[in-house]
Design brief:
By secondary structure, the chain is of the alpha/beta class. It has a single domain, classed as 3-Layer(aba) Sandwich (Undecaprenyl pyrophosphate synthetase), CATH 3.40.1180.10. The protein has helices at 2-26, 41-47, 52-73, 92-111, 113-117, 133-146, 162-178, 189-193, 241-253, and strands at 33-37, 77-84, 120-125, 152-160, 206-209, 228-231. A six-stranded parallel β-sheet has the order 3-4-2-1-5-6, sandwiched between helices. Helix 6 (133-146) links the parallel strand 3 and strand 4. The chain is globular and about 75 Å long.
């Protein structure tokens, strides 16, 4: 009985704090574009004695919530780091599980009522040539079904590596210069950006990483040059709404500087 009362009090206090925090965040300008390094699925599974696949499933469920939280406070663009080029080298069973999960998720996004109701455009950033054909087809369906939407933007970095993105851009520019299609003195930051996966997207205002690691892990290296960074100690599946709101509030309390 005592433990039930304690849990009830704790739940009430959490709910009150969440509402107060939400009101505070909503009273100030929110970031237009939030990018998230979703880290900690495997460690969460280990800590709670779950299968690795269950940890990834919990992470997928958390992403569903994050999308809702972003729309609730008015964040128009969300970009998440789902699978890096380095992740290809993980245990085959784990990679296969992730690929199946991605296929299910993109098929779900193509049909999901929420996506169409809120006009959420779905896009994938990364190397599709390293992905299975059935996943590429699921991605194509989700992107095709939402390509005209412009209310919210949901970008998934899949088969993505920041350095590789930059190298590919350099190669494409070099080919244009070599073939006389572009003079070398026309290469600027603006023109370089046109050769990136994110060519028609604004740079992220806030880059958030979970799990306590304080590094960017080859994510949006060019794009985050002036982003505000926020690191949370919480594993991704355990990331709560108050953790998200705290990250946004931290961003709001900072004075952004575009330079040193």
């Amino acid at each position: 009985m005592t433990s039930d009362i304690s849990r009830a009090i704790s739940s009430t206090a959490y709910s009150a704090y969440e509402k107060r925090l939400l009101k505070e965040v909503a009273s100030m300008p929110v970031p237009h574009h939030v990018a998230i390094i979703m880290d900690g699925n495997r460690r969460y599974a280990q800590e709670f004695r779950l299968l690795v696949a269950e940890g990834h499933e919990k992470g997928r469920e958390k992403l569903e919530q994050i999308l809702e939280w972003c729309m609730e406070i008015g964040v128009r663009m969300l970009t998440v780091y789902a699978f890096s080029t380095e992740n290809v080298g993980r245990d085959k069973d784990e990679v296969d599980t992730l690929m199946r999960m991605f296929i299910q998720n993109f098929n779900r996004l193509a049909e999901e009522e929420r996506v169409h109701k809120h006009r959420i455009r779905v896009r994938v950033l990364g190397r599709r040539d390293i992905l299975p054909d059935d996943l590429k087809e699921a991605i194509r369906r989700a992107e095709e079904r939402t390509k005209e939407y412009d209310q919210y933007f949901f970008n998934i970095a899949l088969g993505y590596g920041g350095r590789e993105e930059i190298i590919q851009a350099i190669r494409r520019i070099a080919e244009k210069v070599e073939h006389g299609e572009m003079p070398a003195n026309a290469i600027t930051e603006r023109t370089f950006t046109e050769f990136l996966y994110t060519k028609d997207m604004p740079d992220p205002d806030l880059v958030l990483r979970t799990s306590g690691e304080e590094r960017v892990s080859n994510f949006l290296l060019w794009q985050l040059a002036y982003s505000e960074l926020y690191f949370s100690d919480v594993y991704w599946p355990g990331f709560r709404k108050i953790d998200f709101l705290r990250a946004v509030r931290s961003y709001q309390m900072r004075k952004r500087r575009f330079g040193t």
